[in-house]
Amino acid sequence: MKVVTRFAPSPTGHLHIGGGRTAIFCWLLARHFGGEFRLRIEDTDTERSKQEYTDSILASMKWLGLDWDGDLTYQSQRKDVYNAYVDKLLASGHAYYCECSVEEVEAMREVARAKGEKPRYNGKCRERGLEYAEGRVVRLKVPTEGRVVFNDMVKGHIAVDVSELDDMVLRRADGMPTYNMAVVVDDYEMGVTHVLRGDDHVSNTPKQILIYQALGLEVPTFGHVPMILGPDKQKLSKRHGARAVVEYQQDGLLPEALVNYLVRLGWSHGDQEIFGLEELVKLFDGNNLNSSAAAFDPDKLQWLNGYYLKNTPLAKAVELTKPFIEELGLSIEGKNLEAAISLYLERASNLKDLAEQLKPYLQNAYDVIMEEKAVKAIDEQGKEQIKNVLALIRDTEFSVENLEKVIHDYVETSGVKFKLVGTPLRSALIGLAGGPSIHLIMFALGKDETIKRLEKALTM
Ligand code: GLU
């Protein structure tokens, strides 16, 4: 059997990390089994659905590395298809027209509530054989006894007695099919074999199974992953810094880190923490999904991101950092970006942070803000050291080795403590008393800029 999964976002907002995680799971399951991963845009809520959100969701999917198979399915374009299936149910006697008003149905619910029963429609029109008329809804004729049973990939055995459910509406009075109807038709027509989604949908599943059964269709395998909780174990919200995938992208996170983080937040493979995408595809077979909700841990995400950043090849890191440098309004024209980035890649926790640290290298010498310690380090004694080193490097061909030797030899022969040389020089070059080795800073700045900055310090 070919495994077909799908992700079915509603374009009423950007792709949130919870949705992102569901998408990753569905993608992994399909890729693991060499199957298909389909994408469906559930845009039936015309008030809240927006094209810009669809675009944003697709962009986030691409950024995460989740490619999909086939064309996109838009629910808003499929009303007639859904209604054809509702008609089939009417023809086969599995559905019926109902003329009860909203108020009447509410009154029935009230009666049930008063009896301590589940509020439900009482089946008044079930056997009346009503024909089509404007304003009539179509309801499913739910079996009067029995249980809906399924084996959830995450939660295990689930059984719901039909008395818990009522004759649900399949087509509204305005002719629009309901959500559960549309989802069943789509999942069937898209050939979906595994429906993996957030457990906010678990109560829809028995209803959907009843629709499958009424249509005589094979029921897919379902799996419901628990919601992501905040660090305080409450429902994850904005307050916890829970945000859209695109916001993490804008913050300079690497997609590998976010994917790794989100997968681990709901799935495990022993106590392994680091997983590359390829490895995940190999390992993720739908087992070992956690049935209890996991708490979001921003520190761990940053830690993972630092790990992936450190292991990013330099040339790629340069490309990834460029947009963040641009955002700071800095030019990279004529700069040795690779050398500068290599000084901070190990320590940065994200690309934004990395770009920020490059500021002193990319700014005009006069724009570099000096920290107080740096200003203090450029005193008379400090200037003396700057002057001496400046004299030596004017004739030095700039390479990492040459510069290292010049500084090293100067410290040796002058007998001045290294710190008393290094601190004023670093301060003059990047406005910071502490940081990378002097020769590396000089190399990253280049000869002209190094001389310019040292000369400038002497005039302070
Ligand atoms: N559109 C639904 C949502 O965004 C998903 C429904 C489903 O996966 O079946 O929550």
Describe the structure.
The chain has 460 residues and is mostly helical. The protein is built from 19 helices and 10 strands. It has a 3-stranded parallel β-sheet with strand order 1-2-3, with helices on one face. The protein has a 3-stranded antiparallel β-sheet with strand order 4-5-8. Strands 6-7 form a two-stranded antiparallel sheet. Helix 8 packs across helix 10, helix 11 crosses helix 13 and helix 12 runs antiparallel to helix 18. The model has no long low-confidence stretch (mean pLDDT 96). The structure holds glutamic acid.
Give the H and E element order: EHEHEHEHEEEEHEHEHHHHHHHHHHHHH
> How is the biggest beta sheet arranged?
3 strands, parallel
| Morphology call | elongated
Overall mean confidence score, pLDDT: 96
Query: What is the terminal separation in angstroms?
Result: 76 Å
Percent of residues in beta strands = 5-15%
- Read across the widest sheet, the strand sequence of neighbours is 1-2-3
Report the bound ligands by name, code or SMILES: glutamic acid
